[in-house]
Structure formats: structure tokens, C-alpha cells
Amino acid sequence: MRHPIISRLALISGLCLVLMGSQFSCSSGGDEDGGNGGPTGFDVELVLKTTGGTPRTNFDVGQSIVFELHVTNRSGSTQTLNLPSGQVYDLVLLDDNGTAPRWRWSFNRTFTPAASTLTFAGHQEQIYVYIWNGILDNGTQLMSGTYQVRGTLAYPQFDSDWRGNNALAAPLRTITISN
């Protein structure tokens, strides 16, 4: 009985952090729109943790994974990013050599279709947190194996190439799931 309550509290906490994060904006001013390498001046890092807060890249089958997408404006000035919709970020899990996602944070979520902006003050860091239970988009449990994960801001065309380089996407991280 206690496990479902803790899971729900963790999910609600993650949702609150995401909603608070969507109140902020992030981008580069001027003519850079995030395509073909994206705007400069940002550090984007994906940190993976256990629900106890320990950073790691090895998890057990059925173990929840905490995704923390850290986005930092490296410049001393305000930067604004124009986003094509109300979606601010996405998280993805790929087979080790695959290009099609096995899981996406945004799967079956609805976002306002209206363009939006995300603005960071100089040197501001924003962290987007999500706790994933390991259930894939097809409803099955993630099984043991080696996978690639990535976090990205939802810049224009962000989902056209999950393995491509972009200043608004964290580098791919390899994770191992074991029995």
C-alpha cells in the first residue's frame, strides 16, 4: 500500500517541477532559431539518478529513473528561444543503435499548438525533472539491455533527428538496464 502512495507523491512532485519550469523561458536572442546546431550560449546536460538521488547510468529492470535536464544560459545577458508550440522539452530512449524512439516523455501528451517563448536571464539555470517508471510507449516494461537516452529543449525540428547535434540538446547518454 505504501509503495503506490510514494510513487504518486514522486510523480506529483515531478509534475510540479515541470509546471514550474514551464513558467521560465530559454533561448538565444536575435536571428538564431535552434535549427542546424541551434543557438549558442547554452549548456544542456542530462543527469540520470535513482529516486534516492544517486547519479548513475546502471539501473535494474523495473527501477524508476529520474531524468534531470539541466539547461544553463552561459551568457551574461537574457536569451530568448522561440518554440514552435507549448512543449518546452522532451526526453527519449533509443535502442543502442536505433533511430526510432522506444519511449518519449511527450508520447500521448497534448501541448498548445501556439508558438511560445522561453527566456533565461544571464547565467540562469533551469532544471526539468521527470521520474520515469520504465514503461515503454507500447505499454511494456523496459527489459535488460543497453540503451541511449537524451534530453532536449523542443526547438524547431527537434524530433526529426534524435541523434543529431544541437546546442539545445544534451549529448546522448548510454544506460544499462540489468535483471
Features:
179 residues, mainly beta, Immunoglobulin-like, 5-stranded mixed beta sheet, 3-stranded antiparallel beta sheet, 11% helix, globular
Question: What would a concise description of this structure say?
Answer:
This protein has about 180 residues and is mainly beta.
Query: Which architecture name does CATH use?
Result: Sandwich
Molecular shape: globular
Question: What is the CATH superfamily label?
Answer: Intracellular proteinase inhibitor BsuPI
Task: Give a short account of the largest sheet.
Answer: 5 strands, mixed
Q: Provide the spatial order of strands within the biggest beta sheet.
A: 2-10-9-5-6
**N-end to C-end Cα span:** 24 Å
Task: Please count the helical segments.
Answer: 1
Q: Would you spell out the secondary-structure blueprint of this structure?
A:
Elements (H helix, E strand, L loop, with lengths): L1 H20 L20 E8 L8 E3 L4 E9 L5 E5 L5 E7 L5 E4 L11 E5 L4 E8 L12 E9 L19 E6 L1
Parallel strand pairs: 2-10
Antiparallel strand pairs: 1-3, 3-8, 4-7, 5-6, 5-9, 9-10
Outline the structure in words.
With 179 residues, the protein is mainly beta. The protein has a single domain (2-178), classed as Intracellular proteinase inhibitor BsuPI (Immunoglobulin-like, Sandwich). It contains one helix and ten strands, in the order αββββββββββ. It has one helix at 2-21, and strands at 42-49, 58-60, 65-73, 79-83, 89-95, 101-104, 116-120, 125-132, 145-153, 173-178. The strands form three sheets. It has a five-stranded mixed beta sheet with strand order 2-10-9-5-6, with no helix packed on it. Strand 5 (89-95) and strand 6 (101-104) form a beta hairpin. It is globular and about 45 Å long.
